[in-house]
Design brief:
By secondary structure, the protein is an alpha/beta fold. It has two domains: 184 residues, Rossmann fold (3-Layer(aba) Sandwich), CATH 3.40.50; 106 residues, GMP Synthetase, Chain A, domain 3 (2-Layer Sandwich), CATH 3.30.300. The protein has eleven helices and ten strands. The longest helix is centred in the middle third of the chain and has 22 residues. It is globular, with a radius of gyration of 21 Å. The structure holds xanthosine-5'-monophosphate. Xanthosine-5'-monophosphate binds next to helix 7.
Amino acid sequence: MDENVRNPEMKRINTKELATSFIEEQVALLKKEIGNKKVLLALSGGVDSSVVAALLIKAIGKNLVCVHVNHGLLRKGESEQVIKVFKEELGANLIYVDAVDRFLDALEGVEDPETKRKIIGKIFIDVFAEEAKKLEGIEFLAQGTIYPDILESKGIKAHHNVGGLPKELNFKLVEPVKLLYKDEVRMVGETLGLPHNMVYRQPFPGPGLGVRCPGAITRERLEVVRESDAILREEFALAGLEGKVWQYFTVVPPFKSTGIKDNKRTYEYSVVLRAINSIDAVTASVEEIPYPLLFKIRDRILNEVKGVNRVLFDISPKPVATIEWE
Ligand code: XMP
């Protein structure tokens, strides 16, 4: 049987008991396959790579080497959470790479969305490959491939994410969740004890906040995106919408408009709120955020985020719009 095809008799992992047996089975298989060799994993903090990391830590402990690359386009608190959960709580062998300047310098002045994506993808691979070359004795590369990635190899992830590892990094692949659907990966992650907000988090694009800072990225505007996004996420969590709304984020377009504060005219950025529901990201509808919540988010952004004088709500469905702004 093709190892990339799910056995039709395999039960949907929808209880902790089923997840526990999956974990036990995989840990035994991974131990057998890997022995005392070393495995490398790019750990973004996303659901899939996090679950793979937790499984491998259980199976081979410090022989899993996780590399977390901070490209400067992550959300507020994201790198900190990866370090806290994996290094401090699970004792992972984690290498943190601060590549913020390298990414942001390379992106300076670049306006075209696809060129931005290519630069981010390429530097990511370069940074990861450089780290891999510094390490001795790595034989395997772990990846958070999941079943929909195999089924739709022309799907969203494959469509957006360019690149691949250079040929000289000739590792054997380890893909322990490649036959699982997303809800099953989440159940396994939760059973492994990963934090709820990590396991049930919304989709987040590889190029991160870079696509929410349309046009040429500036550090100033990126900070506005990051801070306003943190407020939106916090307020959605308080309102019980976390895990219920498919995807929500802020966008800060590359223009300023006039406002007034303390009797003085201002010339500052606008923050666009976006909250959508979808099943497969191919189509999306707009979440009807109640006005009191919208106003609360507006007030917090206008009061707490420097350089903003306007908050807008994007009511465009996909199609005609896309989910991200670029
Ligand atoms: P769009 O904007 O095309 O987005 O309607 C559909 C889904 O894909 C995510 N997205 C990306 N994911 N790399 C990714 O890994 C990307 O470059 C990228 N661009 C968009 C988007 O967040 C949405 O969930």
